[in-house]
Specification:
alpha+beta; 34% strand; Aminopeptidase; transferase; 4 helices; 7 strands; globular
């Protein structure tokens, strides 16, 4: 948990964050069904993902750090919803918070910054898929104006069982 009074900085992700971001994501790969990746990544394998998020444009990577220790507390991304060109005004968003920083508002800070950054971009809709059950993520997304569109039943298999994914949509101002 974050100590009381810990100040958090949200900024664009950089290559200097790659090891910490990879370790954070790998926690969710190996310990949860939140992501459907099955094997952990090396930083080298994760580098193309990081580089696909420039500091401007509709596909962003924002990182939250403790201002004192520079410890990565979490990150939020917006990326392509689908690969075909007509989907360009739609993004898929996600938030990952370090296990020792959950429940402290880090996800809220990250989404505040992400949606502020997207405000001037040509983005019309944001989508988020949430593996069920995940009450904390559902609450976060609903707080930011996402509405439930539907649930894909037993769409992924991990840890020897099938998982549902609920899909949410947020309307954004077009740039």
């Amino acid at each position: 948990m974050l100590p009381s009074g810990t100040e958090v900085q949200v900024r664009p992700g950089t290559e200097a964050d790659l090891d910490a971001l990879t370790a954070l994501y790998n926690h969710y790969v190996t310990e949860t069904a939140i992501t459907f990746d099955l094997a952990p990544f090396t930083p080298v394998e994760r580098r193309p993902w990081l580089l696909s998020h420039p500091e401007d444009g509709p596909h962003r990577l924002l990182v939250a750090t403790d201002t004192d220790s520079r410890h990565v507390l979490g990150y939020a991304t917006s990326g392509p919803h689908r690969p075909k060109a007509a989907y360009a005004p739609s993004v898929e968003t996600s938030v990952y918070v370090a296990p020792d920083a959950t429940g402290r508002g880090v996800g809220t800070l990250l989404y505040d910054a992400l949606f502020a950054a997207l405000d001037g971009e040509d983005v019309h809709r944001a989508f988020a898929g949430i593996t069920q059950p995940n009450e904390a993520s559902t609450r976060l997304h609903e707080r930011f104006g996402f509405r439930h569109l539907g649930t894909f039943g037993e769409v992924g298999r991990k840890f020897g069982r099938y998982w549902d994914v609920a899909w949410y949509q947020k309307d954004l101002k077009s740039g």
